[in-house]
């Protein structure tokens, strides 16, 4: 019997996750000096990074995204996703704890 090795995220995924963390910290004004330098380095690497940063930190885009989150039927969306991940009988009640956690993290 062979042991399954855990799937390791790619370097590209790790980098994208790190940049997402840094941009979120920038928006929330919670970056350390070292994190701010790392974000600046990434933004200044190329024009694509600059455009992504500008779109993600634009106040109007942020407000529109918050409105979409507030008006979305998150429970129905979670139920659809949960049914795709775990085919079978998934009810709104069984998805409720996960939904509460997601709401807490996002809002």
Question: In words, what does this structure look like?
Answer:
The chain has 107 residues and is an all-alpha fold. Helix content is 74%, strand content 0%. The chain has 6 helices and no strands.
In short:
The chain has 107 residues and is an all-alpha fold. 74% of the residues lie in helices and 0% in strands. The protein folds into two domains: 10-71, no CATH class; 73-107, no CATH class.
Sequence-ordered SSE layout with sheet pairings:
Elements: H1 11-27, H2 33-43, H3 47-57, H4 59-71, H5 74-85, H6 92-106
Helix pairs in contact: 1-2, 5-6
Cα-to-Cα separation, first versus last residue: 45 Å
* Count of helix runs: 6
Number of strands: 0
Q: How would you sum up the global shape? A: extended
Mean pLDDT: 79
Strand content: under 5%
Contiguous runs where pLDDT drops below 50 for at least 5 residues: none
| Structural class by SSE content | mainly alpha
Q: What number of domains?
A: 2
Task: Please trace the helix and strand order, writing H or E for each element.
Answer: HHHHHH
Largest sheet: none
Our Rg estimate from Cα atoms comes to 18 Å
């Amino acid at each position: 019997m062979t042991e399954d090795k855990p799937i390791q995220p790619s370097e590209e995924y790790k980098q994208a996750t790190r940049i997402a963390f840094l941009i979120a910290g920038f928006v929330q004004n919670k970056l350390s000096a070292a994190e701010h330098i790392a974000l600046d380095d990434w933004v200044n690497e190329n024009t694509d990074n600059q455009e992504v940063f500008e779109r993600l930190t634009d106040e109007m885009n942020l407000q529109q995204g918050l409105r979409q989150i507030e008006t979305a039927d998150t429970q129905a969306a979670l139920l659809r996703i949960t049914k795709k991940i775990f085919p079978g009988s998934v009810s709104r009640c069984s998805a409720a704890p996960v939904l509460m956690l997601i709401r807490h993290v996002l809002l």
